[in-house]
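thread: overnight batch results

M.L. [08:02]
morning all. the overnight job finished for the chain we discussed friday. pasting input first so we're all looking at the same thing
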Amino acid sequence: MEKANKGRFVVFEGIDGSGKTTQVELLCKRLASTGFPIYTTCEPTDGPVGRLIRRMLSGTLPADQRTIASLFAADRTEHLMDPETGIRQMVDTGTIVVCDRYYFSSYAYHSQYMDMEWVIQANRLNADILKPDITLFIDVDPQICLKRLQTTRKHLEIYEKIDIMKQVRANYLAAFKRLAHQEHVVVIDGNNSVDNIAKAVWEQVCLVI
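M.L. [08:03]
and the structure it wrote out:
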């Protein structure tokens, strides 16, 4: 690490069923084995706003998409700034934080329903607080992702439909292109074996820690 007192912020992105959660676990095990202080987290969080969002995503609490987008941004700010488990503080004090989803998820999912620039601006405060050192996008064919979800879940969430998943993938790629001059994003071929994906992830993460 370049600075002993400075951690890193690593984010995984991907459409539902892409296998990013598995890759988060594998990366954290490998980082921990090297002695790095590690903290793993995800969005939406388990806090009050995050729990509200989960009800909306499951369909049990109907809400306007602008409301959901705004709540995600608020949950993200709390995620960053919580006095005990805030990502910003952890990174500043030397921890490598690995997060399953961050603001690119909002750009990809919510821009189906509103202009992407609106979503980017809604998260401007969060981007100002902390940008990832690297965002790893696990890119998998949406048809494959949907089949995985159908075999592992009893109930699909509101965004887990093939037309939506295809659009979300396209939105991710559009957001990466739009913000290429501001963000460090690496697209990983998620159609490979789990081990090969993990190897590609490790190679990229080693460049920033």
